[in-house]
Design a protein that fits this description.
CATH topology of the domain at 38-48 and 73-226: Rossmann fold
CATH class of the domain at 38-48 and 73-226: Alpha Beta
Radius of gyration: 17 Å
Helix content: 25-40%
Distance between the termini: 14 Å
Structural class: alpha/beta
CATH architecture of the domain at 38-48 and 73-226: 3-Layer(aba) Sandwich
Shape: globular
Strand order of the largest sheet: 1-10-9-6-2-3-5
Number of strands: 10
Order of helices and strands: EHEHHEEHEHEEEHEHE
Number of helices: 7
């Protein structure tokens, strides 16, 4: 595990953007393409805006990128809670990518379980049997220690047979669809982006505390053959 500390969320975004561009370009040079699973949340939104700026937009060959989604709220694309909507508005509408480079969940005119099965079939067709899967899975971490849609005390945390699953989350009164931890742990690299004083205690528990994934689901993300990176700001890392 590699820990990267930045002064604040703005510096964190720049530091991660620099790392991301270098990693993506190296991967493209070696393999001809770069696959990345995006995340919802406020920290990735700030990153996306930075990536579309003149300082970064021209630093990579976007035609070689393929975009996936770590998890999604089962709401229409037009719903402001949609991770896909956020990613299009802040990133994908502003860089030269085509529809066939974007592989997101279907959340309309389909049942959640069928959407999850279709997404799993797609992922297995692309990555099953390879030493590593997606080149980079970008993750956030909630104040409760959740990541993806792996929420505390939910059975989904320990799912290993399915690569993708859907479930009803009472606390949010909606279905969620998510990659399971085996997909993240099969990635070539996983990067957590964590900022803000509200994450201090949970970050300390996740990184330094006893292994309790039912309480702190982010702990279950441990790549088997890949790298694990934590990009954090000083406020989040104050107790480390």
């Amino acid at each position: 595990m590699q820990l990267h500390k930045s002064k604040d969320i703005d510096q964190l975004s720049r530091d991660f953007a620099d790392w991301l561009m270098a990693y993506a370009n190296t991967t493209i040079e070696a393999n001809g393409s770069f696959s990345v699973a995006l995340s919802g949340g406020s920290t990735p939104k700030k990153l996306h805006v930075l990536l579309t700026s003149e300082a970064y937009k021209e630093k990579t060959d976007w035609s070689k990128w393929h975009f996936f989604m770590g998890d999604e709220r089962f709401v229409p694309f037009s719903d402001d809670r949609s991770n896909a909507k956020m990613c299009y508005e802040t990133l994908l509408n502003h860089v030269p990518v085509k529809d066939d480079q974007i592989h997101f969940y279907q959340t309309e005119n389909i049942q959640p379980a069928d959407s999850a099965q279709a997404y799993e079939k797609m992922l297995r067709g692309l990555f099953e049997g390879k030493q590593t899967g997606i080149d980079l899975v970008i993750l956030g971490m909630g104040d409760d220690g959740h990541t993806l849609s792996l929420f505390p005390h939910q059975p989904i945390i320990h799912e290993t047979a399915k690569w993708v699953d859907s479930f009803w989350l009472d606390a949010q009164d909606m279905y969620r669809i998510t990659m399971t931890h085996p997909v993240a742990n099969h990635a070539a690299s996983v990067a957590f982006l964590v900022a803000g004083a509200g994450k201090q205690q949970v970050l300390k528990e996740v990184l330094e505390g006893q292994f309790q994934p039912d309480i702190y689901p982010s702990q279950i993300i441990q790549p088997v053959n890949g790298e694990l990176h934590w990009f954090v700001d000083e406020a989040a890392a104050a107790l480390l």
